[in-house]
Write a sequence for this structure.
């Protein structure tokens, strides 16, 4: 173990790592310790996320979008034809809540036939590539856990008909978990307990994988970022792309009208005058129920994790550090005697960066309203709200054979 790492282990009283001061450190563990940001440990004493002053942000509503649809479509198609638009699929998660221990995108959402989440998302994107007669560069962010299986799955299914030359995979960065006393947790004898660094880490992970060169080589100017679990996600949507470009904004966010003031979605708003997202649990009852003169909710548009960012602005914020959010989670670990522990309640802190902070670091953002029944079918749970069942019903409603 290098002297500077030994010093850090001693100075931060790392009880699970002490034994490695006097014995050989496994290569994998040593690399993790050398690459990790030790300042995370200090953060657990300052967990309060300080937010600014929120105010409402008006959305571009469906009525306005429809009256300008042909103009926005032309602008968007032109950008796509010229390879100015790329797409980022955030696919690092597992289907654990669905009782599925593989990459969530590998889940079969079909009933009478096979229809994988990845397959449906590619089909959604191919509607655009056919309309534009051009391929959209697609960058798929995996995790250490599911990277190999995801790549194999795409190979096995011949990329669901997509041009493989336009598909690139990259792995999300991992960060260590610490217990409530600041001890780095061990997953095994040769590894820390690591977890993905949150959905805000995608652009730095892309750069670390060397794919910024691919963006530059292809001349990509806009990136549409979307989550794997919404099977109705419309990707590189020319109308959304065109409206954002036409607005002069450097970013855009697809939003849906909330079904009630307390719906559990983040609402696009302003924070200290900058675009931001206020989480549902941060809204006071007064904010949640506040209405505009026409009777609509002031914080009435929820985000669906479908954003577009101008690439030059992304490179600008990549030079800065995104705020780290400290969250309590259940993290299995082995103790100093190599005894395994599978906690029943939260026992550790994980560190995450969030995409909402990327929005806040942009100069402006266009909230772009979409019809939730046509574009919002998240698959988060096995049954009930935002479930396999509800997503299947919406796929059928949209004429998709399942």
């Amino acid at each position: 173990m290098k002297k500077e790492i030994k010093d850090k282990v001693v100075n931060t009283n790392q009880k699970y790592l002490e034994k490695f001061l006097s014995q050989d450190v496994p290569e994998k563990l040593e690399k993790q310790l050398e690459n990790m940001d030790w300042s995370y440990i200090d953060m657990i004493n300052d967990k309060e996320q300080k937010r600014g002053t929120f105010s409402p942000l008006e959305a571009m509503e469906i009525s306005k979008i429809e009256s300008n649809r042909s103009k926005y479509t032309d602008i968007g198609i032109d950008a796509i034809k010229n390879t100015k638009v790329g797409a980022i699929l955030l696919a690092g998660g597992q289907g654990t809540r669905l009782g599925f221990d593989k990459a969530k995108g590998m889940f079969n959402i079909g009933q009478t036939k096979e229809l994988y989440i990845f397959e449906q998302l590619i089909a959604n994107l191919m509607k655009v590539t056919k309309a534009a007669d051009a391929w959209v560069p697609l960058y798929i962010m995996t995790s250490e856990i599911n990277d190999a299986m995801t790549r194999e799955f795409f190979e096995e299914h011949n990329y669901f008909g997509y041009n493989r030359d336009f598909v690139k995979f990259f792995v999300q960065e991992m960060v260590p978990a610490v217990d409530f006393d600041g001890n780095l947790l061990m997953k095994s004898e040769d590894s820390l307990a690591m977890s993905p660094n949150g959905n805000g880490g995608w652009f730095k992970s892309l750069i670390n994988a060397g794919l910024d060169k691919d963006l530059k080589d292809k001349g990509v100017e806009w990136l549409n970022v979307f989550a794997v679990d919404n099977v109705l996600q419309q990707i590189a949507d020319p109308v959304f792309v065109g409206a954002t470009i036409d607005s002069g904004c450097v970013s855009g966010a697809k939003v849906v009208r909330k079904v009630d003031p307390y719906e559990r979605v983040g609402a696009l708003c302003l924070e200290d005058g900058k675009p931001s997202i206020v989480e549902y649990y941060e809204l006071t009852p007064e904010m949640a129920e506040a209405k505009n003169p026409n009777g609509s909710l002031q914080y009435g548009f929820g985000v669906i994790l479908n954003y577009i960012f101008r690439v030059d602005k992304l490179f600008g914020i990549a030079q800065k550090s995104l705020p780290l959010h400290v969250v309590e989670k259940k993290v299995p670990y082995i103790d100093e005697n190599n005894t395994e522990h599978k906690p029943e309640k939260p026992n550790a802190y994980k560190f995450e960066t969030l995409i909402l902070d990327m929005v806040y670091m942009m100069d402006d953002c266009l909230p772009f309203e979409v019809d939730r029944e046509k574009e919002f079918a998240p698959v988060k749970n096995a049954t009930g709200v935002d479930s396999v069942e509800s997503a299947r019903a919406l796929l059928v409603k949209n004429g998709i054979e399942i």
Q: What stands out?
A: DSSP finds 15 helices and 19 strands in the chain. The first helix runs from residue 3 to 11. Residues 49 and 325 are 7 Å apart (CA to CA).
